[in-house]
Specification:
single chain, 36% helix
């Protein structure tokens, strides 16, 4: 039992720390807004920001849900942790176990690079086709209700934040940071998913990808 308890504690700490590491600074070049996605360090996990005008497929509904929004941040996490943060050691210990997941949708009236500390945001250039694949990836993971729209499960801490049921399940091998890397890769970005655990890993890989892509597009 002592060994199992130690494993569970380390696993819980790993998942929490996975979303705590800092960013790696902004990218050196700035693509046009409609050709940009934003990798954002939100303190305890990473999220991906998409310009509202670039949303397509199932995600186009968010132009109606959040009129006036300029960017939508999408984040992934275990339902019980994401919608009601843990407040005791016991809750942290059971946190890493598999369970239903949600996608948080957070509307912004600006872009993340203007709203957050520069070290917490990486701007990445994405093609129009990549934007379409990114929207499809996120949209396909949103469970839909009888009305065909994403199924709302909880409100966030303000009217700009909503939680929607995810089709996939949260596990130790499918976490918030792994989901973000999957999304970036679907967009055609050269971000490796190997061994992704910590938020800092995602931010560092995103920064390297941005630097590489900027060099390729430099005159």
């Amino acid at each position: 039992m002592e060994g199992l308890s130690r494993f569970l504690l380390l696993a819980a700490m790993g998942v929490l720390l996975a979303c705590c590491a800092g960013g790696s600074g902004p990218s050196a070049c700035r693509p046009g807004e409609l050709n940009s996605v934003y990798l954002v360090d939100r303190g305890w996990h990473t999220e991906i920001g998409v310009p509202v005008a670039a949303l397509s497929g199932k995600l186009a509904v968010y132009r109606e849900i959040f009129p006036g929004a300029r960017t939508i941040l999408f984040g992934y996490g275990k339902k019980t942790f994401f919608t009601a943060p843990a407040s005791s050691l016991e809750e942290y210990l059971i946190g890493p176990f598999p369970g239903p997941a949600v996608v948080q949708v957070f509307a912004m009236t600006t872009t993340p690079d203007l709203a957050y500390d520069p070290d917490a945001v990486v701007v990445l250039p994405v093609s129009r086709e990549g934007m379409g694949r990114l929207s499809d990836f996120i949209g396909d993971d949103l469970e839909t209700g009888r009305d065909g729209r994403p199924r709302l499960v909880a409100a966030g801490h303000g009217p700009e934040s909503l939680f929607y049921a995810a089709r996939s399940r949260y596990t130790l091998f499918h976490t918030c940071n792994g989901w973000v890397v999957q999304a970036l890769r679907e967009a055609g970005l050269p971000v490796s998913a190997d061994g992704v655990v910590f938020a800092g890993q995602v931010m560092a890989r995103g920064a390297r990808a941005a630097a590489m892509l900027c060099r390729k597009t430099a005159p």
